[in-house]
Amino acid sequence: LGMDNTDLGVLCALVVAVAIYLKRNQLKELFASNDDSITASSSGSRDVVQVLRENKKNYLVLFASQTGTAEDYAKKYAKELAAKFSLNVMCADIEQYDFDNLNELPENVFMTLFISTYGEGDFPDGAVQFEDFLSNASEGDLSSLKFGLFGLGNSTYEFYNGAAKKALDYLKSAGATLVGDFGQGDDGAGTTDEDYMTWKSNSFEVLKEKLNLDEHEQEFEASFVLEKLGSVDDTVSLGEPSPHYLPSKKLVYNSEKLQVGPFDLSQPYVAPVIRSYELFKDTDRNCIHTEFDMSGSNIKYSTGDHLAVWPSNANEKVEKFLKVFNLDPKMVFNLKPLDPTIKVPFPTPTTVGAAVRHYLEICGPISRQVFGQLVQFAPNEEIKQKLSELSTDRDQFAIEITAKYLDLADALLRLSDGKPWDSVPLEFLIETIPHLQPRYYSISSSSSHEKQTVHITSVVENFPNPSEDMQGNVVGVTTNLLRNIQLAQNNELNKASLPVHYDLNGPRNLFAGYKLPVHVRRSTFRLPSNPATPVIMFGPGTGVAPFRGFIRERVKFLETQENVTLGKHILFYGSRNTDDFLYQDEWPEYAKKLGGAFEMIVAHSRLPNSKKVYVQDKLLEREDDIFDLINIGAFIYVCGDAKGMAQGVHAALVDILTRKKSIKKEDATEIIKMMKTTGRYQEDVW
Length: 686
Ligand code: FMN
What we know:
Helix 3 packs parallel to helix 6 (about 190-210). The chain has 20 helices and 21 strands. Strands 12-9-16-7-8-13 form a six-stranded antiparallel beta sheet. Strands 2-1-3-4-5 form a five-stranded parallel beta sheet, sandwiched between helices. The chain has a five-stranded parallel beta sheet with strand order 19-18-17-20-21, sandwiched between helices. It is globular. By secondary structure, it is α/β, with parallel strands linked by helices. It starts with 7 loop residues before the first helix and ends with a strand. Bound molecules: flavin mononucleotide (FMN).
């Protein structure tokens, strides 16, 4: 199975994309460097060794993170190293520095890396230059360097912890010495936190010995001075997604002027939702179709990209959090880092209410380590005892906290029987609770069909807590926000009973008129450039989103081009029954326009009196056709659930190739792996 030669165009597009990406990064840097309120106020040097020396640091922790998990663990690790062993730790994003002189770190200054993996075993976007540096290092270049390494990945992906493994190989080849174990956190098994705790214990033991460190009781010491300020003025952030939206800055966000970015992780575009509607019929579940208007910006997207939606927390969750910690939402404060290598985590000055609503991930899963750190602030001895036991007993913590889907406020209130935890410092909460991250959705529109409108398709996370002794529902932050907007926009808010409500107007009414901060993230999920190439798509549930975009793209293509032949496009779609069959009115229209080139094969897993059927079952039923299409160069796309579905489709395809080609299973697996490497088998799974 060779690569499709006609797809050289894809390769060229990739080269162009990389060039644009690098250019974008330069722009981003220029942009970020003006932003003195959130960037480190150090000398601005990118020389990591110089900055370490200048700030008298004797330990370096670096992170490469796409959605904040590696960053969160790196910061926790750095904080604990400093608190337990009195080390002067510098913790930074790998993107902030150049590493050419990394081998010149003073002796006894060790480095620990936290690296997550994206795409097909790739480094996060911000670590492209670091990877470049490592891959070009020669034997002996890093012979003085001693490093620790923790990778963050997901074992349901083919290239599990691929980026961290690559970093390990490069570093070792360049002569650097690994200190302690290579740790791997597995999101797929849901064990990242426990994997980290085990790895950290080992790492601390080894460091104690190698660096001759004394260990002492860990007491929280803030990395910032928190200054209380008087009142809100134009410089105080009320939850604006970036400082550029503050009234004191030049950017006038209410004007009709076109906003030019770059819009990315450092600054979103506040986009109007121009249309939204419910996709499910007659069910107690919800799936929302949302359309964002990008015409006020210069944002461009390509079919197959992702849209990042920046959420805020629900009213009920914010109120509970403020109550547990006895916080005054109106208090205005500023954060001053105690040393210049530390970044202020969100725009300041701000109010406590804005920080809790817009910047802190107050509803996320709790880490056992955070529980351990909270022991020092327990309201009384009895609660201290309970908290301490839970934080040291991995199994009990899993049963009592994780399995019950408790967020921090709920968990603490349960432990204290409703007593407030009013001695927890605000600085502790700001430094310990991860920061609210944008959520990524596969775009379900086509950039040639609708150039300035981006559609997303999201199932609302809202289900009864599976734990018997828990009341209420488990609710997702962003999908419930999208549902609130959909109901409000269609004047249906009072008809539905909602588990949570939001401030839809946002800070200083920035989101009024149904707007949300968003940015586009480029993906590599792309249709083959030659339309005659056959395409096989697997997208059950909301996994169908990018394929709706693909099919709309092909419809537009046929409408605008003459004398073209479209290869066969087969879409395997799955839903529980006909009530949650997404976009069911649209597919017949597409089929009419595409003629015989489009075929949709539907599997239902919960039809009354019928056996469960999944997309991989349907695939096996059609194995002859699929095998023939693969043989003539078909591209395969899988989108949706990584664990059950994507692995099931993979296994079924391996099975088909094994039997039809009369080869060994390992060889069939190797063929699929090759297809992945050459871009003929693409996954967008979670
Ligand atoms: N983990 C892997 O081990 N290998 C992969 O190839 C991989 N690809 C991913 C692609 C996407 C689109 C997403 C959302 C996750 C992927 N992951 C993969 C899992 C992440 O690395 C993992 O969730 C990690 O904890 C995220 O860390 P971060 O928040 O610091 O970026």
